[in-house]
Amino acid sequence: MHTDLVAALDIGGTKIAGALVDGRGTILVRAQCATPAQEDGDTVMGAVEEVLGRLARSPLWERATALGIGSAGPVDASAGTVSPVNVPGWRDYPLVERARAAAGGLPVELIGDGVAITAAEHWQGAARGHDDALCMVVSTGVGGGLVLGGRLHPGPTGNAGHIGHISVDLDGDACPCGARGCVERIASGPNIARRAVEMGWRPGPDGDTSAAAVAAAARAGDPVALASFELAARALAAGIAATATLVEIDIAVIGGGVAKAGEVLFAPLRRALRDYATLSFVRDLEVVPARMGTDAGLVGAAAAALARQADTAAAVS
């Protein structure tokens, strides 16, 4: 696998990152541009084509055998389309077809961004060596992905493991997805911050009301800030325990901006998990911080492309 080289894209509402990645997961060439998220769909695609064009100018490009794409979702890998919540110009947008054309006909593997991060953490990060894992991203939203039986499990459309929209509070707040009491509605960064303000937390003189500011206040012992993180931790624990009970994972990896709060999040999360993960086969579930950092989306998209190639090669032989 070490001679393999694939192209990778990590498409989000803020930036479109691209890379050429080898079979060991090393990024050899990079390109990036801002996502024109509020423009029409073809303008956004133009930015994707610009990133691919920059990669194609590298002499290594001719060795690339596939293109892996991790995109903000929802994605539909079976249809080759994406409808990212934060890119309104893309609704059922035929990304796979357009990206294949822009990449000179390379085979394209599309997965959601949560699944991409899961692939990266399993290949090289905190879930390495675990055959059954849940990886989560807790930031502006809450996403995730599953590794089952030692293999990435994206599901038919590429969205399996989307833990942010498990309901953990049956009579909870309405979530923009249409359900109530979703993990994301309680545990995402903006919701941690919103709830802290509603509960009476007041920001410092700089007026910063972000989740990071709430985390700093919690670290300093502010009881309201701590209470908001406690609620987020309980929601995450309930969602993780439900997932573990359903599919028998033995590790949950948590990344994203909210995870940077550290023990302000992880200490109450581990406590709450003991309340929810009570059956014998989930009691030893570990919860750990992600390790892959900002390159996770790119490395994971590459991992998915390499895995698909390996499957195709096995099927042919």
From TrEMBL:
It holds the Pfam family ROK. Signal peptide: none annotated. Belongs to the ROK (NagC/XylR) family. This is ROK family protein. Coiled coil: none annotated.
